[in-house]
Specification:
This protein is of the alpha+beta class and about 140 residues long. It is about 20% helix and about 25% strand. The longest helix has 18 residues.
């Protein structure tokens, strides 16, 4: 028997996020742990994928910050990030954008080169963390 407070919380507000590309939620949490589904660089206002690696990476990090803020979660609650790149040589450029957004927050991270990503994206990022007080 599951306690009402332990049920999975699906968070797909109608704005300011891009509509999910499939049957999934951008953000879910359970038992004090949260997960952000893989995000690609879609502009939430236009619904279009940003052009080029750097604009996509920046948009992803901005969208992730919006998702966290909408759910009253701070960047300091990130525990793990997974980055999927279609070209591993862009990791250094991603590191610069990632570090600029996260500042002193330094979660565990994996970076993986993949053959392709949805909608022709060049980078995708997913994260998980904990629901902390005052985050």
């Amino acid at each position: 028997m599951t306690d009402k407070n332990e049920s999975l919380i699906d968070k797909n507000p109608p704005h300011p996020f891009p509509k999910p590309l499939g049957h999934y939620s951008h953000f879910v949490s359970k038992g004090g742990i949260w997960f952000i589904a893989g995000q690609i660089g879609i502009n939430p206002k236009t619904g279009a994928l940003e052009e080029g690696f750097k604009p996509q990476a920046k948009r992803i990090m901005d969208n992730i910050e919006l998702i966290l803020n909408e759910n009253n979660v701070g960047l300091n609650s990130i525990l793990k990030t997974t980055v999927y790149l279609t070209d591993i040589s862009t990791l250094s450029e991603f590191n610069d954008i990632y570090a600029e957004k996260l500042g002193s927050v330094c979660p565990a991270r994996s970076a993986v080169e993949v053959k392709s990503l949805p909608n022709g994206a060049l980078v995708e990022v997913e994260m998980c963390g904990f629901m902390c007080q005052g985050a």
